[in-house]
Design a protein that fits this description.
alpha+beta; 8-stranded parallel beta barrel
Length: 597
């Protein structure tokens, strides 16, 4: 029986792992080294993201410094499940590092030492709004930190917290290059994070003139009460331009650090960060009487806080941090699916506990199996409008008793559950469904096994009365490589971004998708063109195989959208599609790959 066999397999693995750890002792205690590849931060060479807390300013007498101790760090690790802690060392403000170097540096080291002992990542932050005025001091400080901690994988250097409205290329980049060079002379490989203009929001500006060197990421800060989709669009532009981001500071309140919790916008940011694999730290672990503080006034300076000692923003932050996945990315990466559409179960963005295996269901390919209670998978989708949706699941179960729960990725909202009865075997397939209400917009959905013991081949999400379109929809801006194009906001249904400025000779390539069987496929493209005359070619990325081409008509404007299509013959298996621009003068919002009946 599959479910029982899985239990035995995992128990054996745990036993062997325990024996190895008992033999090796503390020598195995460490975190994976961080590195940057394209727009991703990798841990041990694999895409990963993690969440945690930022401490408040370290300045002497400001109130937040009492939380700079090992007991607090240990509590964040054990109770909050934090994977990263940020030390926000105040620099030029009253009683910061420049006025009290010994006191502030001692606090920094206390937290860094505790993070290393607890196998957490730790960000050493030069917390200033005017760091360019203190470049020599920053160099000396980070040289000392690199000499002291550069041999620890745990340590991340943040060389500038939040620049104001100053030039990236003329001021910030030269400052960062000088500090980075000083660090690299001592520590050649630990992650370095660089602040960006306008309170670390203009990541798109920095991405157009990036710093040369390895293992460099860029700071993005948001406060959900003030910063919405427009800032996520800037972040997406930066990612599209090939730089990696790290949200070293975020809040669920307004940009002032005060006000009420903007829960809906906070979850939109969480969905975005999870979908893009962006690590983050919540501001701020402090008891100051303002909305962004995680703790109520007078909360213990040694950890051990009860639920009643957390503020509204603190409670939400703890939920988000505790629910951050110990991620296992899908082999082909995560592609946003525009609904209505059918999603192959194995095309998850992240998962916990499941395995992929060959299926004998119609069209072959793979299914997700070994699903036990508490296991989950997430999928990145774009819901065109809020309302009722029919969600179908293709399932198989030898014994029945399973329960699927559809929820927001990371928790927070449960949309509905459906039971999985016995189908008589692990490859005896049937379809179950339920109707749920979904909010509009780009988001991450999750399938949680409330009760396990079933397989899933695919899920299909449509509006009641919609035709069953199926297929896999790929957002144009989700390319993993390109030449010559730009992204921009779109007014097409579903919003978000489209790809524009497409000229002859430009191209885009996309993350791999799996085609369960060979045959005839319909390829639809959502396009807009002021003058027409364009032509695109669908090919295997790199151009080794050309599948077909289609002409782009005039639609009357750059945001007047129509769908064009053609049929092509595609082989089974993993395909990495490319789009080559044979004649330009058009925009692309998405394309959809559907097996012809």
């Amino acid at each position: 029986m599959q479910f029982v066999a899985t239990q035995i397999r995992r128990a054996t693995t745990a036993l062997l792992g325990g024996l190895v750890l008992a033999h090796a002792g503390a020598a195995l205690a460490d975190v994976s080294p961080l590195s940057v590849s394209g727009n991703k931060i990798l841990a041990g060479g694999q895409p990963a993201s993690f969440a945690g807390n930022s401490l408040f300013w370290s300045n002497t007498g400001w109130g937040g410094e009492k939380y700079y101790n090992a007991n607090v760090v240990g509590w964040l690790k054990s109770d909050w499940k934090s994977k990263v802690v940020r030390v926000a060392m105040g620099v030029d403000e009253t009683q910061g590092y420049l006025a009290d170097p010994a006191g502030n540096k001692a606090r920094v080291k206390a937290v860094v030492d505790a993070a290393i002992a607890n196998d957490m990542y730790v960000i050493i932050d030069w917390h200033s709004h005017h760091a360019e005025n203190y470049r020599n001091e920053a160099i000396a400080f980070f040289q000392e930190m690199a000499r002291t901690y550069g041999n620890h994988n745990h340590v991340i250097y943040e060389v500038y917290n939040e620049p104001l409205n100053i030039s990236w290329s003329g001021t910030l980049k030269p400052y960062a290059q000088a500090v980075i060079s000083a660090i690299r002379a001592i520590d050649p490989d630990n992650l370095i994070i660089v602040g960006t203009p306008n309170w670390s929001q203009d990541v798109d500006v920095a991405s157009r003139d990036p710093i040369s060197g390895s293992n460099i990421a860029y700071t993005l800060h948001f406060y959900a009460g003030s910063h919405g989709q427009w800032l996520r669009d800037k972040a997406q532009t930066a990612l599209n331009n090939g730089v990696a981001l790290f949200v070293t500071e975020w809040g669920s309140v307004g940009a002032s650090g005060d006000g009420g919790v903007a829960a809906s916008e906070t979850w939109a940011w969480v969905d975005f960060m999870k979908a893009k694999g962006i690590s983050n730290a919540n501001w701020a672990l402090n008891d100051k009487a303002e909305g962004a503080s995680a703790l109520v006034s007078g909360a213990s300076a040694q950890g051990g806080w009860s639920a009643g000692q957390l503020t509204a923003s603190g409670s939400l932050a703890k939920q988000i941090i505790g629910g951050w996945p110990g991620t296992t990315p899908a082999p082909g990466g995560c592609t946003r699916v525009a609904l209505p559409g059918q999603i192959q179960a194995e095309a998850y963005c992240q998962m916990s506990g499941v395995q992929v295996e060959a299926t004998t269901d119609t069209d072959g390919g793979s299914n997700v199996g070994y699903i036990e209670t508490g296991d989950w998978m997430t999928y990145d989708v774009n819901v065109p409008a809020a309302g009722s949706y029919v969600v179908k699941y293709r399932v198989a179960s030898a014994s029945g008793g399973g329960v699927i729960q559809l929820e927001r990725g990371g928790g927070g909202s449960t949309y509905g559950t459906v039971n999985v009865s016995s189908t008589g075997g692990w490859q005896n397939w049937t379809t179950v469904s339920h109707t749920v209400n979904l909010p509009a917009g780009q988001q991450t959905l999750a399938i949680l096994a409330k009760s396990g013991g079933f397989n899933v081949n695919w899920l299909d999400i449509s509006r009641p009365g919609d035709a069953n379109t199926g297929g896999t929809t790929i957002q144009a801006e989700s390319f993993d490589a390109m030449s010559g194009v730009q992204t921009e906001a779109t007014t097409d249904s579903g919003g978000g971004l489209n790809v524009g400025y497409l000229d002859a000779g430009d191209w885009l390539s996309y993350p791999s998708i799996n085609l369960p069987s060979a045959g005839t496929y319909t390829i639809e493209y959502r396009v807009a063109s002021l003058n027409g005359g364009g032509n695109l070619q669908l090919e295997e990325a790199g151009g080794s195989v050309v599948y077909g081409s289609v002409n782009i008509p005039a639609t009357g404007g750059w945001q007047n959208w129509v769908t064009v299509k053609h049929t092509v013959q595609l082989p089974a298996g993993t395909r990495k599609f490319g789009i080559a621009v044979r004649n330009g003068g058009w925009n692309l919002n998405w394309f959809r790959v559907t097996k012809a009946n």
